[in-house]
Design a protein that fits this description.
heterodimer, A: 216 residues, Rossmann fold, 4-stranded antiparallel β-sheet, 32% helix, globular, B: 263 residues, 10 helices, 76% helix, 0% strand
């Protein structure tokens, strides 16, 4: 059974068609790179998968269930999503983490030793925790967001441009990590060629939608 | 001892003062001349009406009538909040009116029975003016609270969505917004409390002193009323934002932009 199935999906925003007749299936454990020029609807696809917006046509299935509000709330607890927009919180990194790990769904998942080892793993100094999140550099924000997603112990990842501001070495390390874990399902939106490697299926949203323009 | 009546000539001199803001507005092009005239006119007509009406109500002093009058105040206040907020009336007017009634009428009954110790809880002389002060303040804070919440949830939509995708329930994700709206709307009331007496003498106290009460009595009432205002304002804003959290989001947890008035 497909983990995620996008069936004949169309999406519009403010009268403009963003996605048309999109069909995608992803099975558990698969690694998928989603490509395509800006504005083609990559981020919209993730928003549809998280129930942040509803398709104007077609259906999205998750673990075989068609999307409805209850499923959307379930998905948000099962999936780790890293947004391309880095404005995800305010206050110090520590305060942000405390907030996120106070949610009932994440209680008890913030283990200080684990956090410390991840910080050093991704070349962040421990004092980053006491800095204001909004003052961090783009690359630091991306790494914090990645660490948060790892701490929540999910096995399905929706990653939206998470390596754009990182140096080559860190890019490789992070792609290695996400691609290398066989039990993880990973959907990554990226312009980085680092993601184009063996074992990663490439979905080009542009090509996929070229032939189709029917949605009613 | 009772206050001296202001003569018609005195009133005329008072209205003459409005020339100053009108001239300032004219020179700085504030575009406030019409609003100034309209507001002053409305105030005069409304107060004239209320003056006659209250004379009648006070003489009659019928509990039911007093209660109905305060309920009318509550309904008008809820309506005014929605008029000044970005929200449509339909989904909000009933719950907002109920929350206003609960927070303010509840507070008034507590106040009149336990603080002032009235035998007749609905005695017009106390019930109506105190209701006016409590409801008036709640109204102002509610507008600030609700507008701030709507602004923030739209401006920082990404933060809210990222909380959701990190596993937050709707209420967990909206708690920071509730917190900020409350802090923001309640701050002026707190500042008033902290500076009262030094920086300004509140209207009620001034009124009581001019009306012939001793300053000490006026102060007792002032302290009591400020606490009542603070408490009811806090409850009111909290109820208001909670109503918004319940009605203003769809089943997916998305903010319902269709609840906003069109531009």
């Amino acid at each position: 059974m497909d983990l995620i199935k996008v069936e004949k999906v169309c999406a519009d925003a403010e009268g403009r068609r963003i996605l048309s007749d999109l069909n995608i299936s992803v099975s558990r454990g698969e690694k998928v790179l989603i490509k395509g020029r800006s504005g083609i609807g990559k981020t919209t696809l993730f928003r549809l998968l998280l129930g942040f917006r509803t398709p104007s046509f077609g259906t999205i299935y998750f673990e075989g269930r068609p999307m409805d509000p209850r499923l959307a709330w379930d998905i948000r607890k099962k999936v780790a999503h890293i947004s391309q927009d880095s404005d995800i919180g305010e206050g110090t990194v520590k305060e942000m983490l405390d907030g996120i790990f106070s949610y009932a769904a994440n209680k008890g998942m913030l283990i200080p030793e684990e956090l410390q080892s991840m910080l050093s793993e991704f070349s962040l100094r421990a004092d980053v925790l006491h800095k204001k999140f909004e003052n961090l550099s783009g690359g630091e924000k991306q790494r914090i967001a990645i660490i948060i997603s790892l701490l929540t112990k999910k096995d399905i990842f929706l990653l939206d441009e998470i390596t754009s501001d990182l140096d080559a070495k860190l890019k490789r390390k992070i792609v290695d990590m996400f691609v290398g874990n066989p039990s993880w399902t990973v959907l990554a939106i990226s312009h980085d060629t680092e993601w184009e490697r063996e074992g990663v299926r490439v979905i080009d949203l542009e090509k996929l939608q070229e032939s189709s323009n029917v949605c009613n | 001892m009772s206050a001296t009546d202001i003569t018609p000539a005195g009133m005329a001199f008072c209205f003459l003062l409005l020339l100053i803001p009108v001239l300032i507005s004219y020179h700085l092009n504030l575009k406030l001349i019409n609003s100034t005239i309209e507001s002053a006119f409305r105030m005069t007509v409304q107060l004239a009406f209320v003056g006659f009406f209250l004379t009648f109500v006070f003489e009659l002093n019928n509990s039911l009538l007093n209660f109905v009058w305060v309920l009318t105040m509550v309904i008008v206040a809820s309506y005014t909040v929605l008029k000044n907020a970005q929200l449509k009336y339909g989904p909000f007017i009933v719950p907002l009116t109920l929350s206003f009634a609960l927070a303010n009428v509840g507070m008034l009954l507590y106040f009149n029975s336990l603080v002032i110790g009235l035998n007749d809880l609905f005695e017009a002389r106390y019930f109506i003016p105190i209701a006016g002060m409590v409801i008036g303040n709640s109204l102002r804070a509610n507008i600030v609270g609700i507008n701030y919440f709507c602004d923030q949830i739209q401006r920082n939509e990404n933060r809210y969505l990222s909380s959701l995708s990190l596993g937050a329930e709707k209420y967990e994700a909206l708690k920071p917004y509730l917190r900020k709206s409350l802090r923001n709307s309640i701050r002026p009331t707190l500042a008033n409390m902290a500076t009262v007496g030094i920086v300004f003498l509140p209207g009620m106290m001034t009124g009581q002193i001019i009306g012939g009460s001793s300053p000490l009595t006026a102060i007792e009432y002032q302290i009591a009323i400020m606490i009542a205002i603070y408490v009811s304002t806090m409850m009111n804003v909290m109820f208001g934002v909670i109503i918004l959290i319940h009605r203003g989001f769809d089943d997916y947890g998305m903010f319902r932009k269709d609840m906003l008035k069109g531009e």
